[in-house]
Amino acid sequence: MSEIVLASGSPWRAKLLRDAGLSVSTEVAEIDERAVDAPLREANLPPEDIALILAETKATDVSARHPGAIVIGADQVLDFDGEVFFKPETIEQARVNLLALRGQPHHLRSAIVCVRDGQPVWRHVSSATLTMRDFSPEFLGHYLARIGEDALKSVGSYQIEGEGIQLFEKVEGDHFTIIGLPLLPLLAFLREEGVIET
Prior knowledge:
The chain has seven helices and seven strands. The chain has helices spanning about 10-20, 35-40, 45-65, 90-100, 135-145, 175-180, 185-190; strands at about 5, 25, 70-80, 85, 105-115, 120-130, 170. A hairpin with a 2-residue loop joins strand 3 and strand 4. Helix 2 (about 35-40) packs antiparallel against helix 3 (about 45-65) and helix 4 packs across helix 5.
């Protein structure tokens, strides 16, 4: 069976795959994500396309160092009324983003692209809709003080699998999509390819 490599440094994505029984190694792509996504945003591409291109770029980069392997690239984009949010660079930017999302619904677009020998062999995008509650600015300040730099690790400045769940009023969609790795379609693809047992 083919080697499986996750082109990501995300401990959450790696844990999802390993918890599902997959033997997977991880390697972070050697790309500048902001340099890749800047022209995509300027071109006003749909959020789904941006997520797919970023996922494919990561997987293609790592694939060059793993001949014959199935390399999984994943990316997630937050779509708020057509505005695309990426991981914040500062706590203040996280605060501004969360205040903008307060009391409103937004969409997470989670993309996966599998690459073998530099060629994409499968693409998928899943979406989830999340509605934040109308929390107080004081709550937000205390929340950001508690989670610190973790606010910079996700596109929405929250990690819903932890304390970030307190920011929400309603969540609609697949849990794995929200975490950033639509697992069920990926497993189906890997079975079809004979990479994992059917």
